[in-house]
Design brief:
Layout (H helix, E strand, L loop, with lengths): L12 E4 L15 H6 L1 H6 L4 E4 L3 E2 L11 E5 L6 H13 L3 E6 L9 H6 L13 E2 L19 E4 L4 E4 L14 H16 L4 E4 L20 H13 L5 E5 L5 H7 L9 E3 L21 H14 L7 E2 L9 H4 L5 H12 L4 E5 L19 H12 L4 H11 L2 H4 L30 H5 L5 H14 L1 H5 L1 E5 L6 E7 L4 E7 L5 E2 L10 E5 L9 E2 L4 E5 L1
Parallel strand pairs: 1-2, 1-13, 2-5, 5-9, 9-10, 10-11, 12-13
Antiparallel strand pairs: 3-4, 6-8, 7-8, 14-15, 15-16, 16-20, 17-19, 18-20
Helix pairs in contact: 5-6, 10-15, 11-12
Length: 535
């Protein structure tokens, strides 16, 4: 590593999806006071920061990713005073709050858009992306991520506006400097008020050029990000993570340049898209292990010293990893955690991942997510069978991650005393925090150990990555070497016992961690077994 290490390179970040974390007032929706009441739990995980999902004022068309006021809190989640208390209480515990910033679009109920749509001469009109046309003929055939055209006709000003997400999420026009500076001012306000950083929602899309069908990586993108960084981040010790679906190891070197000119790190999804067949996540295919290993290896080797990556299997948009690439068992959960936590980057734990929460199989009417609902309506109208639509939702639907946090075996898993906004996963009676607190071998306590290990071992931050047994389909193994220490991670990525030629792995050194109660036999890995050696 050729730069001074930053605190966030040894940090672990915990993502809270506030709506599903802890309700305090019985309305069935998680809120800020509820989260405050769980700060000691989060602290007990050993993590350094909380990525706080959307809490700003919002019509909730996309669960808060449609913001109508960046400087106020939605009454569903509490008040501005609650938010200030959260910042104070978290900071007092040494937990930074990373605020989820949606800068690509606002709600159509944001006062900026309400003005903008009035007429073409309104001073705010140019703050959004408008194009001429006639109601039946949009400017081009670009599609919204949530289905249908990305263009919506506006009767008031007789133009189309561009929305990469729902019709209630019009895209901001970053080519207008007033827009950019209004956003920077707002971010500075949050930083002045105690925010420890920002998670930047779909930030790679802000410099779009819709006429050329460009959303991600528009020509002015990195110019704007550098400008934002200079206007907001300079002189402050903030951690910034950019959600960049388009990032490659090459562009990640710009995004996370160690000179600090852009962001701290990227949050990219190359590994996450490997089990989809074609451009749509709903079209499923089995995870090709060789591709997973290749993608992880590339990110591990091509960014060292030149940038910084996030390590994650889950977030609020993704299914539960233990169901997705494991078999739902505790062993699979801990194996997946081990593989991730031995790598270079900053790990993220999404709420519930640390207890091995699983996907759900609900009926269509039980789902709440706009993406799921729009996809189901579209595909059913297009003649897909209900069975295939449900198979996709069960495998990939975002609501898999959004079921309430499972705190205990009591009513509604201890999440709310009211009716939860989305059904609780029925396995909460056995799979919950309270039960795992009591069990030294639980997934929860395993995660705690892994978090600690990263703090203690510089080799996890700095070491070079070398893959072991690259051609093996069911074994994920690698070593990390910083010239001082060597960490070896060996994992059985399958539910079968696997024999391998022991000479292929230089495991000399101490076994320091295994997700079984006993050390593995040489040359043999039990189902979903994971082990770490250190020398
Ligand atoms: C990414 C967020 O994580 C997702 O939940 C949201 O729907 C889109 N961006 C649009 O803001």
């Amino acid at each position: 590593m050729n730069t001074t290490p930053k605190w966030w390179q040894k940090a672990v970040i915990y993502e809270v999806y506030p709506r599903s974390f802890q309700d305090s007032d019985g309305d069935g929706i998680g809120d800020i006071p509820g989260l405050i009441s769980r700060l000691d739990y989060i602290k007990s995980l050993g993590v350094d920061a909380i990525w706080l999902g959307p809490v700003f004022k919002s019509p909730q068309d996309d669960n808060g990713y449609d913001i109508s006021d960046y400087q106020d809190i939605d009454p569903l989640f509490g008040s501005l005073a609650d938010m200030k208390r959260l910042l104070d209480e978290a900071n007092a515990r040494g937990l930074k709050i990373i605020v989820d910033m949606v800068l690509n679009h606002t709600s159509d109920e944001h006062p900026w858009f309400m003005e903008a749509k009035k007429d073409r001469t309104n001073p705010k009109h140019d703050w959004y992306v408008w194009r001429d046309g006639t109601p039946d003929c949009p400017p081009n055939d670009m599609l919204s991520t949530f289905g249908g055209s990305a263009w919506q006709w506006c009767e008031d000003c007789q133009q189309f506006y561009f929305h990469q997400y729902s019709v209630k999420q019009p895209d901001l026009n970053w080519d207008n400097p007033e827009v950019r500076h209004a956003l920077y001012d707002m971010m500075n306000w949050w930083a002045d008020n105690g925010a420890g950083g920002f998670r930047l929602d779909v930030i790679d899309s802000v410099a779009k050029v819709p006429d050329e069908k460009i959303t991600a990586e528009g020509p002015n993108l990195h110019k704007y990000i550098k400008e934002m960084s200079a206007a907001v981040l300079k002189g402050r010790d903030l951690v910034t993570v950019g959600e960049c679906w388009s990032a490659t190891p090459e562009t990640a070197q710009l995004w996370s340049n160690p000179d600090g000119s852009e962001l701290s790190m990227v949050f990219q999804f190359e590994h996450i898209c490997l089990d989809q067949d074609g451009p749509f996540k709903w079209d499923l295919k089995k995870l090709p292990m060789a591709d997973l290993k290749r993608v992880m290896r590339r990110w591990q080797t091509e960014l060292t010293g030149k940038g910084w990556n996030s390590l994650f299997w889950e977030n609020h948009d993704l299914p539960r990893i233990v169901s997705r690439w494991g078999d739902g068992s505790e062993k699979a959960a801990t194996m997946l955690a081990t593989v991730l936590f031995g790598m270079q980057g900053t790990p993220y734990i999404f709420q519930g991942q640390e207890i091995g929460m699983t996907n759900v199989k609900y009926e269509l009417e039980d789902y709440r997510d706009i993406e799921i609902r729009n996809m189901a309506a579209e595909r059913l109208a297009d003649g897909y069978s209900l069975e295939s639509v449900m198979e996709s939702i069960h495998a990939k639907g975002r609501d898999n991650a959004r079921t309430p946090m499972q705190w205990n075996a009591g009513e509604n898993a201890g999440f709310t005393t009211g009716k939860p906004w989305i059904k609780v996963n029925p396995n909460y009676t056995t799979l919950n925090v309270e039960a795992q607190e009591k069990d030294p071998n639980s997934v929860l306590n395993y995660y705690r150990y892994l978090v600690q290990l990263r703090k203690e071992q510089d080799v996890i931050r700095d070491g070079d990555y070398t893959e072991i047994m690259p051609d093996w389909d069911n074994i994920f193994a690698y070593s990390r070497d910083d010239g001082n220490k060597k960490l070896t991670v060996l994992a059985n990525f399958s539910g079968e016992t696997v024999e391998y030629p022991a000479w292929t792995v230089d495991t000399a050194g101490e076994p320091i961690l295994c997700n079984y109660g006993s050390w593995p036999e040489e040359g043999l890995l039990r189902p979903w077994e994971a082990v770490m050696y250190l020398k």
